[in-house]
Amino acid sequence: MSTPTAPPGSGHRSPRPGAQTPKRDRSSELRGSTLPVVAAIAAGMVVPVQARLNSELSHRLDDGIAAAAISFASGFVLLSLLALFSPGLRGALRRLAGASWDRRLPRRYMLAGVLGGTFALAQSTAALVTGIAVFTVSAIAGQTLGGLIVDSRAIGGGMRQRPDTARLTGAAVILIAAVAAALPRFTDTPTPTTIVLPALAAVAAGFLLGIQQALNGASTAASGSPLAATWLNFFVGAVFLGTAWGVKTLIRGTAGAPLPTSVWVYLGGLCGTVFIGASAFLVRRIGVLLLGMASIAGQLTSSIALDFLVPSSGQSPSVLTISGALLTFAAVWIASRRPRGSTAK
Hints:
Shape: globular
Low-confidence stretches: 1-24, 26-32, 341-345
């Protein structure tokens, strides 16, 4: 039997014997796309708003752990109401449960919300000891290190991206930018001996945040919906933080402050759903490191805007803080570039 050939004029050419068909470098194409990076920056901009809301709630309750637990619980309630009226989200949750039951999705991935809850717990405890500046820089350092390791090992089943020169340079620049942005607030930092352990806890919390994003990406792939992964994240996180709040209450008792009647102080959970949902959607498109760096750029930009529009300490952002924020965009640009002809392995 003769081998069929393409009709004349079809434009199809058979490859030469022994010739290799060129492969499209999918990771390079994805990383070269600016839209996911811009989306990650926009998602990061909601985080300072969430921090302001949770800080206000914590102040009114006089209990940081209670504020974090309520924030996660409010996000869980919002997503559960959405699932009630959304057949698509309910179907995605069933697919997520089925993937876990069949072991197509490792069951430990279902506990990603604990990692997010750990970061919220560190914000409400370690940051009170270290000060905001040291906590921010420590958390960014941990998040950057986590992004490099998670991407290089493809944790969570994402695309493997080895730490090449561009990524390492971008990581170094983002750390310099974080230090520059926080430098004006280092004058309020306690003595070094009192903040070593809390600062290390902040590094660990930032590291775990990168792993959480990778696991949420795997849950999104299994369910076909970032909202399903976000619902699971808030459910597990709310249970974890609620338990921590209960243990603290048993040991120390409650602060005794009544729940605020202002609805707006409870909107931190809504901001969290936007950020975590966007991260779950984007993480497999640009990787954990670039996602974290882009969101940091968005966070610093939004923080500066809030300090201008609604100052919390009565002081405007310094030149160093603004310069650090601008430097984060340079870091994102550096890390997103790849040498011509290179391929991700």
